[in-house]
Design goal:
The chain is an alpha/beta fold. The chain has 2 domains: about 1-175 and about 340-355, Rossmann fold (3-Layer(aba) Sandwich); about 190-335, Rossmann fold. Helices cover about 40% and strands about 15% of the residues. The protein has 14 helices and 13 strands. The strands form 2 sheets. The protein has a 7-stranded parallel β-sheet. A 6-stranded parallel β-sheet has the order 10-9-8-11-12-13, sandwiched between helices. The protein is globular and about 60 Å long.
Length: about 350
């Protein structure tokens, strides 16, 4: 089987990962190759050389002075991304050696042009509906003779799309051989992009309510937010440890008592929670999006994000989570959150589609 994977172009598929989408793509490529699948990858600049990716770029992008002067001229990075995916899809129209195209990007063109390529197309939905992608999927669904399928990273995310198209679920996976159990420790941990929707400022308030030291890790995705709401809070009881790779994050989670997951939006999946559980560390999370599908009563505590007494509840939740069995946390991650399970489920979709059995 020959599978072409289209990654998102804005961030490299390389460690330390910018987010769950990049992590999923990296692990999927490696997992498929371990199953002897022939994989071609299209990805952004700076992608891990070990993936052997073809870089998503428009080469050349020639714009005349007249075109640049047009009042409808969009920002050039947007235009370059658009034409990069256009070039790839036009190439795939001519390829007869591809069985499945797995669209793992957030761009609308691979969906809009799926019916024009001879291969079957699988699109993973990583986010709630967007104004570019939603109409593209609706139009594609109405096209006769389609050979495509849509899957989402959680049941929650799938449900947000089912008014547009049938959506199945393949939950994200993590490499449980790399996210190894730790002995725990007294501190709390938080990981993710430091941006308003991930709300590390809420984690800081929760940790202080619990009387526990907090270590924050991740890329600063919004410097203005970080400088206003996070940096002033740093001190002896709150430390920013930087943007860590897998080994660094595994050491952080594994040496912590509990990991806090504090989104102020509906998390499409909740990768940090799965990573923490694989390290044996229970999770205290706001019950938003896909997080209730990752965490159960044996592995963490879910909090109502709208509770007026959230900080009081958080203090109790941290105390309760610390009493949970770290082995049970690890066992849940291995059973429910492994990349092995994820790759196997995607292979099942590929084989069904390539056989012409479209559901």
């Amino acid at each position: 089987m020959h599978v072409v994977i289209l990654a998102a172009s804005r961030h490299p598929v390389a460690e330390p990962f910018a987010g769950g989408l990049e992590s999923l793509t990296w692990h999927l490529v490696r997992g498929l190759r371990e199953h002897r699948v022939d994989v071609t990858v299209f990805a952004g600049e700076g992608t891990d050389p070990g993936l052997g990716a073809r870089i998503l770029r428009t080469s050349p992008l020639r714009l005349s002075d007249a075109a640049r002067a047009d009042v409808s001229m969009v920002p050039e990075p947007w235009l370059r991304e658009h034409h990069a995916y256009l070039q790839v899809m036009l190439e795939l129209q001519r390829r007869e050696d591809v069985d499945v195209v797995h669209n793992n990007s957030l761009h609308h063109l691979p969906v809009a042009m799926a019916g024009s390529v001879p291969a079957a197309v699988v699109t993973t939905l990583h986010t709630p509906p967007t104004p570019w992608l939603e109409p593209a999927i609706a139009i594609a669904e109405a096209s006769p003779g389609r050979s495509s399928r849509h899957v989402a990273v959680s049941e929650h995310t799938a449900e947000t799309w089912r008014h547009v198209a049938p959506v199945q679920v393949v939950r994200n996976g993590i490499d449980v051989e790399r996210w190894t159990p730790g002995l725990g420790g007294p501190d709390l941990a938080w990981g993710g992009r430091l941006v308003p929707e991930k709300a590390p400022h809420v984690a800081i308030a929760m940790a202080r309510a619990a009387g526990r030291r907090l270590r924050l890790a991740g890329p600063v995705g919004d410097p203005v937010y970080f400088d206003r709401f996070v940096r002033p809070q740093l001190g002896d009881d709150v430390e920013y440890v930087g943007h860590l790779d897998t080994a660094g994050l595994a050491a952080l989670f594994g040496s912590s008592a509990t990991t806090l997951v504090t989104p102020e939006w509906d998390e499409p999946y909740g990768l940090v929670a799965a990573e923490s559980l694989a390290c044996g560390t229970p999770v205290v999370a706001l019950a938003r999006g896909g997080l209730p599908e990752v965490i159960d009563a044996t592995s963490g505590v879910l909090l109502d994000p709208h509770a007026p007494d959230l900080l009081d509840r958080a203090a109790d939740a941290v105390a309760a989570a610390r009493r949970l069995d770290r082995r049970a946390c690890r066992e849940r991650a291995v059973r429910e959150c492994s990349v092995t399970r994820m790759v196997r489920e995607y292979l099942d979709h590929y084989e069904t589609l390539s056989a012409g059995l479209v559901a």
